[in-house]
Amino acid sequence: MKLNKQDIYKALEKISVSGEGQNMVESGAVKNIVTFGDEVVVDLELTTPALHIKKRAEVDVMKAIHEHVYAKAKVKVNVKVNAPSKPKNEIKGKPIPGIKNIVAVASGKGGVGKSTVTANLAVSLANKGFKVGLLDADIYGPSATIMFDVERERPLSVQVNGKSKMKPVENHGVKILSIGFFTQPNQAVIWRGPMAAKALNQMIFDADWGELDFLLIDLPPGTGDIHLSIMQSLPITGAVMVSTPQNVALADAKKGVAMFRQESINVPVIGIVENMAYFTPEELPDNKYYIFGKHGAKNLAEDLEIPFLGELPLVQSIREAGDIGRPAALQKDTPSAQAIEAITKQVVQETVARNQGLPPTEAIKITTMAGCSAVKK
Ligand SMILES: Nc1ncnc2c1ncn2[C@@H]1O[C@H](COP(=O)(O)OP(=O)(O)OP(=O)(O)O)[C@@H](O)[C@H]1O
């Protein structure tokens, strides 16, 4: 069987690269096609480094050729990424010296396990040898001090180049600053927006973080003032969304993603983590009960074309580990620790892909409250 190049072009005119309106040939993604007998090599050039879009394009090309040209064709797809050097609406900003990646962890709805995921991600990254900081910016319910068992500690003041700086408290290999260090445990946190923003700015810029590979920021739930103020002050590398598979949580996660994707904000979403994906009793790890629904966050990731970073089950010991200040990521080879490790690998992989494909994110310059319209989306 000798394959005809024109037939291949026609088949590829029926499909498009995920997220693009035009078909692959029209959009210029198909760079070259070579055929030898029943073999065909397709060269694709994509403008996004996202792994899931790359994989989907490969599979779609194979399917289109097998369906419309020859079912037994031997297809090879070469994918090259040529991301635009500067996407529109992104303004160049100054990175914070010494901090390589700033990852914001967000959730639409409260109580879905954002702080638990952030704490475990931080410990797991530190276990892998990365230098990690955690900024707990959840002004309504700071919990990093409990999750890292540093409730009684306070950041010390140190001199750096003649300036007084706050030294983050360290435990489990993670440098921590939390709004919780500056409030009494039994005190309700009533911050006015500008006060909270000022306190957070001090924890970011007047702190001696040193060299960090990752600074994770545990954001408050929702899409409010604190998010805007953090994104204004800091060049966020990307955002990780945490959601349970439940519809009410997914609806809010969607709003959160819409906020990051808003033109004036434009923070890349690294992916979605599904927390409390299913309940599993410790003694019966093979029994899975989908009490909040099945694969909700995974499906949302697919719909929004955002990488799915993995799932964390609802396990009593994850809650207990958080409460005693020893995140489950510190456990050796338990199913929970393995699930966290798998999520961590995905976060690292997607962060690397993001950094290869896009220029550094800038601190966003929001000059009007137009950014707030994201909450209406
Ligand atoms: N996978 C899990 N298994 C068991 N318990 C969990 C899991 N994830 C979170 N929890 C528990 O659920 C509760 C809420 O979690 P967490 O505080 O991390 O949520 P959050 O989204 O950060 O909440 P907030 O809205 O206060 O910021 C905590 O008691 C925590 O220990």
Automatic annotation (TrEMBL):
Entry-linked Gene3D superfamilies: Fe-S cluster assembly (FSCA), P-loop containing nucleotide triphosphate hydrolases
Stated name of the protein: Iron-sulfur cluster carrier protein
Record keyword Metal-binding present: yes
InterPro entries documented for this protein: FSCA_dom_sf, MIP18-like, Mrp-like_CS, Mrp/NBP35_ATP-bd, NUBPL-like, P-loop_NTPase, YlxH/NBP35
Assembly mode: Homodimer.
Recorded family membership: Belongs to the Mrp/NBP35 ATP-binding proteins family.
Positions of the MIP18 family-like domain: 5-77
Keyword annotations: ATP-binding, Hydrolase, Iron, Iron-sulfur, Metal-binding, Nucleotide-binding
Organism of this sequence: Mesonia sediminis
Role noted for this protein: Binds and transfers iron-sulfur (Fe-S) clusters to target apoproteins. Can hydrolyze ATP.
